[in-house]
Amino acid sequence: MTFRKFIIAELFRYKKTYLAYFLTATIAVAAFVFISLTSQAAKRDIQLITKEMGQNVIILPAQTELEDYYSASGNEHTMPEEYADSLAAHKGINVTYHVAVLQKSSYIQGSRVIITGIKPYKGKLESNGRKNPYRSIKTGEVRIGHIISQKTGLQKGDSLSIMGAKHIITKVKHPMGTMDDYRVFVDLDWLQLRLNRMGVIHAVLSLECLCGGVPLSIIENNIRQAVRKILPTVKVVTLRSIALGRYNARKTTDNYGRLVFFLVLFSSIMFIMLHSYSEAASRKREYALMSAIGFPGLFLIKLYLVKSFIITMASVPAGWIIGRTFTSSFGILFTKAIILPDYSLLPQLFIGLFVVVATGLSPALIHALKTDPFEILREE
Amino acid sequence: MIELTNITKEFKKGKRSTRALSDINISIPYGSWHTITGKSGSGKSTLLYTIAGLVKPDTGRVHINGNSVYDLSPSKRANIRGKNIGFVFQSFYLIPHLTVLENLLVSGGIFSKDTTRASALLDRLGLSERASHMPSELSVGEKQRTAVARAVFCKPSIILADEPTGNLDSENSDKVMSYLKEFNQEGITVVLVTHMPKENFEVFSNECLEIADGRLL
């Protein structure tokens, strides 16, 4: 007889009980996989949507009035373009996707527009290859705002003369409801050359990382302080509606996932706990006998840990497969983003489920350890 | 030698307390057979489990093989129980998910691989054909013989038997008692408690003790 044979015999004898533990643990894993993968995809979905809303931080020279920047009044102050480099290179600021901006008010076909030279910069913290919402523009190409297109009738593929140079429209932007609808986006280097303002810009637009869980005011304050440390002569303006939109969307997704998962986890633990307690109560004679014939409490602890391990090892792969299948079939109901398998969840799952199962089985262990052989086995 | 010195034990439940053992002093030499008789609630089972290291007395000491049992840690006590003591219960208490042979192999607090000895014991007790059966497939007589085989498998020096014939008919009772006597004659100490009259056991016993209200008479 070996310990392994003993365990196998026990699993076989109480197969209905262990099947119930296995199914409960498998459902918990499947729910975790489904919620994790779907909420990751939903977050990406939200990121894409909010990125479309544009950058949520504007960094301006300290003397520039916000009104002047928005209206391109010509009273905006300039700052060195290296500021954008400094921001992008700094690892202490959780801000990504910077855009250096130089602008000038002008007219196209009688309509007032803001010629806006842009050059995107990618922050050091952004390492996963996502694209800046502002793409770089080649010299000779332009993107125009929605209202300009409406007023002038210009469409994608049309040509346009800006400051005497011919440009091709590569995109008419979606309606934004902001001054971007009046902007003509051109290559920054070209505009600097044309305006004879080499190496200077009016603003840097940035996309602030708003991680759910940290209050927005704290994030804002941290970013202001960090930016001022490296660029003391600028001011930082947060576009609160965009920032709040991003922040709340992320937070809601996170909280929703956490709540659902907590409910699944709680009900799984409660089910295993209640079931294991009643199992232990019905097997008290066995435990009392094991103690009477010389098996110490440590043996019961070992037995309990091995059983938790076996349930975990069986449930994680099964739950993963079911969770993935369910995600592939029904994830589309929750997000349009592609749901990717995240194998980095597996180690967490093994450890987490072992803790869940061991916690669920702990009342049985405590009951078994507290079983008094004299109370149980003595004959009346 | 099993020695019990000045053993007292009181059970408390709420405000009520019951004295189960009172000033018990017994010396049981190795190889002897001691029968302890008494009515239900007299304290005989408490005494048996006190010898086994499963009921800690309020006062007094229990020595087995020179070890003061209750001065040892619970795991060392379990170890001593596994090596030195075999149990036979009225209700058999076989492990339900193990076969007859496997029930022997897990006795004594270890997982033994000595199937030769286990098979020989089963053969001796007329259970060789039942070796691969589950306890639920046995008759009561077979169950108790399996329990006796389990009790002696680890070559203990003591068998503690708690009403071993209480659930058996006379034929099976005789069989079990004769097996216990055989093992006793081979040198194993037997301590048997029963509610039946001591006259029934005098033929087996070196000494018959009677207990009432926790006191030896």
Give a nutshell description of this structure.
The complex is a heterodimer of chains A (380) and B (217). By secondary structure, chain A is α+β, with helices and mostly antiparallel strands.
Describe the structure.
- The complex is a heterodimer of chains A (380) and B (217).
- With 380 residues, chain A is an alpha+beta fold.
- Chain A is elongated, with a radius of gyration of 31 Å.
- Chain A has twelve helices and eleven strands.
- In chain B, the strands form two sheets. Chain B has a six-stranded mixed beta sheet with strand order 6-7-8-3-9-10, sandwiched between helices.
- The two termini of chain B are 22 Å apart.
- Chain B is α/β, with parallel strands linked by helices and 217 residues long.
- Chains A and B meet through helix 1, helix 9, helix 10 and helix 12 of A and helix 1, helix 2 and strand 6 of B.
Q: For the residues shown, what is the average pLDDT of chain A?
A: 85
Strand order, sheet with most strands of chain B: 6-7-8-3-9-10
Strand order of the largest sheet of chain A: 6-7-5-8-4-3-10-1-11
The best one-word shape of chain B is globular
Summary tags:
heterodimer; A: 380 residues; alpha+beta; 2 domains; nine-stranded mixed sheet; two-stranded antiparallel ribbon; 12 helices; 55% helix; elongated; B: 217 residues; alpha/beta; six-stranded mixed sheet; four-stranded antiparallel sheet; globular
Please outline the helices and strands.
The complex is a heterodimer of chains A (380) and B (217).
Chain A: H1 3-13, H2 15-52, E1 57-61, H3 66-71, E2 79-80, H4 82-89, E3 95-108, E4 111-121, E5 141-144, H5 146-152, E6 159-162, E7 165-172, E8 183-187, H6 188-195, E9 200-201, E10 203-208, H7 216-230, E11 234-238, H8 240-282, H9 284-292, H10 297-330, H11 345-370, H12 373-377
Parallel strand pairs in A: 4-8, 5-7
Antiparallel strand pairs in A: 1-10, 1-11, 2-9, 3-4, 3-10, 5-8, 6-7
Helix pairs in contact in A: 2-8, 2-10, 2-11, 8-11, 10-11
Chain B: E1 2-13, E2 16-28, E3 33-37, H1 44-51, E4 59-64, E5 67-68, H2 74-84, E6 85-89, H3 100-105, H4 115-124, H5 140-153, E7 158-162, H6 170-185, E8 189-194, E9 207-212, E10 215-216
Parallel strand pairs in B: 3-8, 3-9, 6-7, 7-8
Antiparallel strand pairs in B: 1-2, 1-4, 4-5, 9-10
